[in-house]
Amino acid sequence: MTYQQFVETLDNWGKNRTPFFFLIDFEQQKPIAFPLNEMPKDVLFDFNSRTNFNKSPKNASSIQLRVKPIDENIFKKKFDVVSEALEYGDSYLINLTLRTEIDLDTTLEDLFSVVEAKYKLFYRNQFLVFSPEIFVKIEDGVVYSFPMKGTIDASIENAEEKILNDQKELAEHVTIVDLIRNDLSLIAEDVHVSRFRYIDLVRSNRKELLQVSSKIQGRLIREYDHAFGTILDKLLPAGSISGAPKKRTVEIIRQAEQIDRGYYTGVAGIFDGNVFDSGVLIRFIENANSRLYYRSGGGITTASDWKKEFREVIDKIYVPVNRNN
């Protein structure tokens, strides 16, 4: 399926109220879409409790994840490329990501059954994603987005106060909220921030994290009613995992990262005939040549410290499981 065919197909299915699943990569080169009643058996999803998974979950109590961090100087070289672009004013905020090898003592499919996240996707043993981040949700003519920017170890003393009062984190969050608000204004009216910088607690196998999000919403313009392919075309790539301004920032990302992201930081979702719901594909494990790699990243500004950013990227390598299950 070409990208243009993908856009037209989702528009047609939306207009006809045909329930569907879709998946699109960061580079927008490998879009995939299935009617929900034709889902392949080796593609499993659970998006806000809408799921095609009906097996018993495995035991999560013994899951072990071992991280093999790269040399921090490799990260610094990527950081320096980004930092130079920021200093020149080519971008205000750049999301820099890293690919870290890991060991797991379970299969990706079994791990899918026990991870806890708003958006879970197992795709043909190629990758597993367990994302907490909504991209856009459309219901009753209202479009919502929930950009997530800002993470801190919950065990740090006064962690919530520190993350909310951190001026660098605030600047990042404001930039992304402004970008997403502008993006939604392409397809909606009366776009506004209905909730600014609220905290979610994420439990994992390694530690608990606090993550900062905001809620933005608007009334969908009539011409975009159920035109889901066109809507995605207007909004992609997701601003929270690229940066601002978007077009130039994506060019800088490619220069710094030197590897395609593929479906990592892409978007996946479903339309059930009434509600369109989609998530950003972060918290991502990929299977490449029988090796497992965890993709993680964070926003970089002129105020960023490379060692702190490297620690944050490694801290984000976790699996959100409830060990009481």
Show unreliable segments: none
Separate helix tally: 8
Strand content: 35-45%
The computed structural class is alpha+beta
Strand elements, count = 18
Query: What share of residues is helical?
Result: 25-40%
Average pLDDT = 91
What is the radius of gyration computed over CA atoms, rounded to a whole number of angstroms? 19 Å
Question: How would the global form be characterised?
Answer: globular
Order of helices and strands: HEEEEEHEHEEEEEHHEEHEHEEEEH
Ends distance: 40 Å
The major β-sheet equals: 9 strands, antiparallel
Description of the molecule:
The protein contains 8 helices and 18 strands. It is of the alpha+beta class and 325 residues long. Strands 1, 2, 9, 10, 11, 12, 13, 15 and 16 form a 9-stranded antiparallel sheet that branches. Strands 3, 4, 5, 6, 7, 8, 14, 17 and 18 form a 9-stranded antiparallel sheet that branches. α1 packs across α6 and α2 packs antiparallel against α7.
